[in-house]
Amino acid sequence: MSAPLNVTVWNEFRHERKNPAVAAIYPTGIHGAIAGFLAPDAGLRVRTATLDEPEHGLPAAVVAETDVLVWWGHTAHAEVADAVVERVRRRVLEGMGLIVLHSGHYSKIFKALMGTTCSLRWRESGDRERVWTVAPSHPIARGVGESFAIPVEEMYGEPFGIPEPEELVFVSWFSGGEVFRSGCAWRRGHGRVFYFQPGHETYPIYHQPEVQRVIANAVRWAAPTVRIPDNCPNPPPPEPPV
Amino acid sequence: MSAPLNVTVWNEFRHERKNPAVAAIYPTGIHGAIAGFLAPDAGLRVRTATLDEPEHGLPAAVVAETDVLVWWGHTAHAEVADAVVERVRRRVLEGMGLIVLHSGHYSKIFKALMGTTCSLRWRESGDRERVWTVAPSHPIARGVGESFAIPVEEMYGEPFGIPEPEELVFVSWFSGGEVFRSGCAWRRGHGRVFYFQPGHETYPIYHQPEVQRVIANAVRWAAPTVRIPDNCPNPPPPEPPV
Amino acid sequence: MSAPLNVTVWNEFRHERKNPAVAAIYPTGIHGAIAGFLAPDAGLRVRTATLDEPEHGLPAAVVAETDVLVWWGHTAHAEVADAVVERVRRRVLEGMGLIVLHSGHYSKIFKALMGTTCSLRWRESGDRERVWTVAPSHPIARGVGESFAIPVEEMYGEPFGIPEPEELVFVSWFSGGEVFRSGCAWRRGHGRVFYFQPGHETYPIYHQPEVQRVIANAVRWAAPTVRIPDNCPNPPPPEPPV
Amino acid sequence: MSAPLNVTVWNEFRHERKNPAVAAIYPTGIHGAIAGFLAPDAGLRVRTATLDEPEHGLPAAVVAETDVLVWWGHTAHAEVADAVVERVRRRVLEGMGLIVLHSGHYSKIFKALMGTTCSLRWRESGDRERVWTVAPSHPIARGVGESFAIPVEEMYGEPFGIPEPEELVFVSWFSGGEVFRSGCAWRRGHGRVFYFQPGHETYPIYHQPEVQRVIANAVRWAAPTVRIPDNCPNPPPPEPPV
To answer: ipTM beyond 0.95?
Structure first.
């Protein structure tokens, strides 16, 4: 039996407290919804953290013991303290997994790890989305099927300002005519990063089984295999000099 | 002034001779249409070759002096002689560029260079296609714009059985609900390979300016920088033994 | 408890029967040595297959039930029947893992999956090799350490005629002055392919614990997650036409 | 005739002013040496910039008109103002090329674009280095040959904390037993980034023809094809809603 995986679900948690329509969909917050569907997996030990907690709920001890961090943010990316972003970034590079959801494409942590703009095309016009599995044998696609529809979603379209994904898992179709690389995986340092596009706050997308399945798969896929702190060693030669 | 680039446009040239509807769209053949829009570029020396010529129009001398080969085939992939396929493959690995169009995804040469099934989802239902530029700064996308529509096209959809593209340039949307990685680039040996999806024989797609622009850009992008025959050298050590 | 993984270790098995020096190092053949160090893992069900058995020990039933195939060949690549190569290639594309060792770089199956020359620089001069872990968090590097030495090995050097590895795990140093990408990983279709350079027949390299560790890790890493036969579907549109 | 390329060679320029031994090797500074060997190319318009100039010689107007920026820094990375780093980063993402040399691996700009630690193994022990061309057909390797030696160099060894290079062009061998991915290329946004390891300040490495050739090739390769400012558009649907 291996030890359970420590998963921390982070949410900005502002929409839910200001907008009753959002609160109606996510009464315990988006973090509560995500933690809720992950919780039944006995191999996971799930906690949540939110922006307005001290240190955004991510003090050094929590980050240190987190194996996989799930991130949802939207209106308050700028309020996330740079020191916390740097702490999370370092931890990813040491081996922690990071799952970035939807509007988290513009979070400081995602932009810091990608190095690019992370900009995209968008429209809140109630488009229908169809998510296609491009890599059916990728662990994150397990059990997801060839494609699935999200009845109403914010449109995110190309070009998406990211480095070329190392593994492109999902590509989405929107009824207004756009496409989007909606499931993208990278290794960064010793950690794994997965970006997954579905999940606007005003739609019940995190209650949809296929979306839950992808997130649960991604958490498992991103589980660390090592913990290697950054170092820049200055060792003697391993071979006798020529 | 650099020497002109030798471009050979290869076409199966069967549909045009059997089906008057195809002949009406491409009276000089698909190869004729492609050679026709490339010809005005003074930097290119364009010739054509077709399946039913001796050695499919690709004898050793032609392949040896070709810098970039454009390939269109559909119903007669199996009739292309293995020896010619191997000759072309070797030449690509030495540095020749290869542009594979539409149903060429199932050509022997493309499958041999990719190593995978190259299978895809398809449907002849007159879908509307919208081609999105995912990599606006890629040389193949120069002047193409954010997206363009193809009014009627055969649907090609994911999953597409290819190795992860090294550079994903275009992704397409189809009105029936599918998406497709419609512009994909790889280096193979010392040559460059570009697959471009548009171009069914029963639609006038190679008369469309955006499609012509992409193919012309791809020919330039795939121009060889070297010619390095395969070798497996057995040299003495460059450094004094330890 | 998950079902054990079916591992087939394939060996050309010619050197050992012709050359007493090789037989002294590998009395049960290279396949016997590899199967021997994998066997203690209760999660693996290991069998062997060799060139001179009927269908090279790889009839359809064996290939169908193999999860991971390990491949060692050298002098008789040309004797491997094309039909068997094609059978193995199809199975990899469906999801089977393939571990190609040392001189297997020139096997038909590796060349067919890569699409390139797979040529390299080489020298039998008793070089010392040092294998460096470039990706310490890759599952194949687990427990291997920063680097390890192979006291005497055939030199394999760059350029190596392969597609850019998707994950470069090891790079080797040779005392004569060369370097080599000695551990390279790719996904091909639904299968995973790993090439690992160490292992000349006249040196006891497969008795070295670090080499055994890498091969055992690679077998685990290459375990299939799916089995998806090739198909090229022609489905109706998933979305109502626009 | 295309317009000349605007190249800015940036140097920290501290070692040369403090250490007479460095000044003896590079009397006009490392920037002066690099600008000097690039200058004869009539297609380049070369200027230099250094840390202690106002805004480090990189005011907005200079960055805006620079096509390719070459970067050398070592002891004073921390003194480079964050605002200037961000200005350069934005410009790279818009299309400017960036060539990062040697100890620049730890510069703020390289780390910001990579998102990773950029740490490595190192030793100042006068190792001999041999640089191997892994991708002989890459434009940056043009005319460089199979390998070349640098008689005395600081050792840089793996693991190198970078994202997987999109194109690995050079790998180096060091006499003490290490290897290093010494020439690595990435696209970031619309710009191209190349890291090249040779060039310690106390060795006359930038006077060596092969090294000059690589840097000149890299400048040409990194020339922008576009200039696309960051944007995150909110357009109407291109297709009529379903």
So the answer is: yes
